[in-house]
Design brief:
Layout: E1 3-7, E2 13-19, E3 30-38, E4 44-49, E5 60-61, E6 64-66, H1 73-85, E7 94-105, E8 108-120, E9 135-141, H2 143-151
Parallel strand pairs: 3-8
Antiparallel strand pairs: 1-2, 3-6, 4-5, 4-9, 7-8
């Protein structure tokens, strides 16, 4: 059972929690992180969701997920990256790109606060070090390659914002 802290629209933590899968109460939001990892060649680490994922199976994305109760966004970003792609990122190399409150997007209800993080990393990616089986494979891609994924409909649609950076 995954428990999330709840926040108000101004990202102030409330004295309330929610359980994954339950409806988020009106006026409340949970914290979600997207983690963009860029190497010194200007490429981004992209991961393909496993075929067993309930949403967007086999589509491409960056690591990310919900921040669990007691974590900060940065701590959640570090944990999600380790879980999904087996990388231990240096927290000092992380930069918060933006924070966005998402009530709905593309007609889907989110009720979350998205933090998009950017990290630099030049090490190897070894999925055998991941602690979940959420990712089928990874690739280092240029921004134009990511645009191609988007144009072919195989990038998770909520990630199109990266093309603006």
């Amino acid at each position: 059972m995954e428990i999330w802290d709840l926040y108000d629209k101004d990202k102030r933590r409330l004295d309330r929690t929610a359980v994954r899968g339950e409806a988020i109460p009106d006026g409340c939001y949970h914290l979600v992180v997207h983690i963009w990892i860029k190497n010194s060649r200007g490429q981004y680490l992209i991961s393909q969701r496993s075929a067993t994922r309930p949403t967007f199976p086999l589509k491409w994305e960056c690591p990310g997920g919900s921040v669990i109760a007691g974590e900060t966004g940065l701590e959640g970003a570090l944990r999600e990256t380790k879980e999904e792609v087996g990388i231990d990122l240096d927290p000092a190399l992380g930069k918060l790109l933006f924070t966005k409150v998402r009530d709905t997007e593309n007609g889907k209800q989110f009720r979350d606060i998205l933090e998009a993080w950017m990290f630099t990393y030049d090490g190897e990616v070894d999925l055998s070090k991941a602690t979940t089986d959420e990712v089928a494979q990874t690739k280092w891609l240029s921004k134009s390659d990511i645009l191609d994924l988007h144009n072919h409909g195989i990038l998770v649609p909520t990630l199109a914002y990266i093309l603006d950076f």
